[in-house]
From TrEMBL:
Residues 214-374 form the FAM69 protein-kinase domain. This is FAM69 protein-kinase domain-containing protein. InterPro entries: FAM69_kinase_dom (IPR022049), FAM69_N (IPR029244). It is a single-pass type II membrane protein.
């Protein structure tokens, strides 16, 4: 069926569809001529004209009611996605309860709990996260957490001194990122994680609620990545925290639709922007092991890159190497870390370093899904995915293209 509406973007594919429809016109119009002759005979009588009129009215009525109920249902499900309201309420209420009892703290607690001016609009309960979406005057507030309640997280013993606590925080960050922050950067690091931190030379700077909240946040890999890998400019900003919950910058989630060629070209540039930034991260390129469109989002601030909306499995190269090579194995499948491939080295009984690279996975899981088998040598990005070549050389070539065409990312 070809419907004659064009909204500009769709015109290419409409033309393709339209050319396919032409063949059908000839038999159709022949049929119409025969039909007309028959109809003319019937229509001579007034009786048949009235019957026809009634049938036409009924058809119009059915079409109208069908379309109306259809669009009505669609708009309802768009405005109010079905989610577990009572659970979403329970999560917020138990958080605000803890806050009001002084058990947790954070810079968005007051806005969230004291003068609530938001409405719940969604709760996502996925494999590894709970994501609450609130709406405040048309503004979206995204609250993320691994487990839903503060009681789900380990506590820190209140008898631990603040020095010990902050030392331990530094250890956790180094363990997670392998960036080896020296202890003398400790205050700077705590301030990055907990913006209201001010070192008090005479006593404790962090209250028990502060410590409890920060400790729960540090049990969530994505929170650490958002904060510490912020320098890479490929993760969303953390706008604030309350207890174990962190507010992420709102991103427009990517939706896989039937995209058209000029839009695909733009998406390709966005993908390359993200890839380029992975390789530019300090001296320790980022490795991403959970690559899919659903985990990417668009930020209003960045016109030439996707942001890694789901950053659980974003690692520095050294961290991923440590993770893989410390894994004991007997067979190769014990060494696959989602999209990051490794094999079992049976001489050591441990997994090898990563064998594929970000470019491989971007090509396989994103770019090929978008472009299929279409590619041309004149598009260097697509060619990089299709020409069999040495990975080191491919990356060197890509870096050169990036520095020319994506210097502003
Ligand atoms: N920053 C954000 N902006 C908008 N929506 C988000 C954001 N973060 C997560 N979401 C929504 O929540 C969903 C799940 O988030 P994600 O981090 O991918 O969780 P999981 O680790 O369970 O896959 C996403 O698909 C998206 O719809
Ligand atoms: C909603 O969440 C509550 C727990 O808060 C649970 O008991 C209930 O079964 C859930 N309802 C649905 C429809 O999943
Ligand atoms: C709450 O939102 C309304 C608009 O929806 C706004 O007029 C009002 O000032 C807000 N109140 C507070 C306390 O922010
Ligand atoms: C290691 O595994 C390979 C196959 O994966 C096998 O050919 C080889 O013999 C094994 N070596 C040892 C020392 O077990
Ligand atoms: C890839 O090419 C680089 C030089 O461009 C070379 O040093 C390296 O050994 C090659 N690797 C493989 C696996 O061929
Ligand atoms: Mg995800």
């Amino acid at each position: 069926m070809h419907i004659g509406f064009n909204d500009g973007i769709d015109s290419d594919s409409d033309r393709i569809l339209a050319s396919g429809d032409e063949d059908e016109n000839t038999p159709c119009s022949n049929f119409r001529i025969n039909e007309d002759r028959l109809l003319n005979k019937f229509c001579c009588s007034r009786f048949f004209r009235i019957i026809l009129f009634i049938i036409a009215l009924m058809i119009i009525y059915f079409i109208y009611t069908f379309l109306f109920s259809h669009s009505h249902a669609a708009s309802q499900s768009e405005n109010q996605p079905s989610f577990n309201h009572s659970k979403a309420n329970q999560i917020i209420h138990s958080l605000c309860d803890s806050y009001k009892h002084g058990a947790v703290s954070g810079d968005i607690c007051s806005k969230l709990c004291n003068s609530p001016n938001w409405t719940l609009s969604d709760l996502y309960e996925g494999g590894s996260k709970h994501v609450l979406k609130l709406k405040e005057n048309d503004k979206n507030i995204i609250l993320k957490m691994h487990l839903p309640y503060i009681t789900n997280y380990d506590h820190v013993d209140p008898k631990v001194s603040e020095e010990e606590f902050t030392d331990k925080v530094t250890d956790i960050i180094n363990e997670q990122t392998n960036l080896n922050w020296p202890k003398r950067y400790k205050n700077h690091l705590i301030k990055t994680l907990w913006p209201s931190y001010k070192k008090n030379p005479n006593g404790n700077s962090l209250s028990e609620a502060d410590r409890r909240s920060l400790w729960a946040l540090l049990q969530q890999d994505e929170f650490i990545n958002f904060k510490i890998l912020q320098l890479s400019r490929v993760v969303p900003k953390v706008l604030g925290t309350c207890g174990h919950v962190y507010q992420a910058e709102y991103l427009i989630p990517f939706r896989m639709k039937g995209y058209y060629m000029n839009l695909k070209a733009k998406i390709l540039v966005h993908l390359m922007g993200t890839l380029k930034l992975f390789y530019e991260f300090l001296n320790d390129p980022l490795q991403w092991c959970d690559v899919k469109f659903e985990n990417l989002g668009l930020s209003a601030d960045y016109p030439k890159r996707f942001v890694v909306m789901d950053s659980d499995m974003l690692y520095t190269e050294t961290k991923l190497r440590a993770l893989l090579t410390s894994q004991k194995c007997v067979t190769d499948d014990q060494c696959m870390h989602f999209d990051c491939e490794s094999r079992c080295d049976n001489t050591t009984g441990h997994c090898t370093d990563r064998l594929n690279d970000n470019v491989d996975v971007f090509c396989k899981k994103l770019i090929n899904r978008l472009f299929g088998n279409y590619w041309s040598k004149s598009n260097r990005y697509l060619a990089a995915c299709h020409e069999a070549q040495n990975a080191t050389k491919r990356l060197a070539d890509l870096r050169l293209v990036w520095s020319w065409s994506l210097s502003d990312v």
